[in-house]
Protein: Transcription factor CBF/NF-Y/archaeal histone domain-containing protein
Amino acid sequence: MRQPGTYSGILSGGVSGKTGPHSLPLARIKKIMKKSSDEVKMISGEAPIVFSKACELFIEELTRRSWMMTMKGKRRTLHKEDVASAVVATDVFDFLVNLVSECAKPEDSSPIKERV
Structure:
């Protein structure tokens, strides 16, 4: 019989993704993982679950930082410019700078980057 692994708390809903704590579609995550490289042939059932949780945490953190930009602008609706400003202002998100560079307003981003 198989024993619960390190990620058993995450796996409580099963691998199907139809039950449990998974809010992102596991089949879509697995498809993206397979498209990432021709060398990726086999993916365990647990790997997409871990990626799903990582994506959730990433989205939460980027949303928090974007919301801080929204509040700084004294608004109550988060806009794409807030996301762009959060990316530009945070070192951890440097890999996204080229993606959002046309959205970022120079007056919204501070010259000092926040270290995480």
Residues 47-72 form the longest helix (26 residues). The two ends are 42 Å apart (CA to CA). The domain at 10-100 is CATH 1.10.20.10 (Histone, subunit A). The chain is about 45% helix and 0% strand.
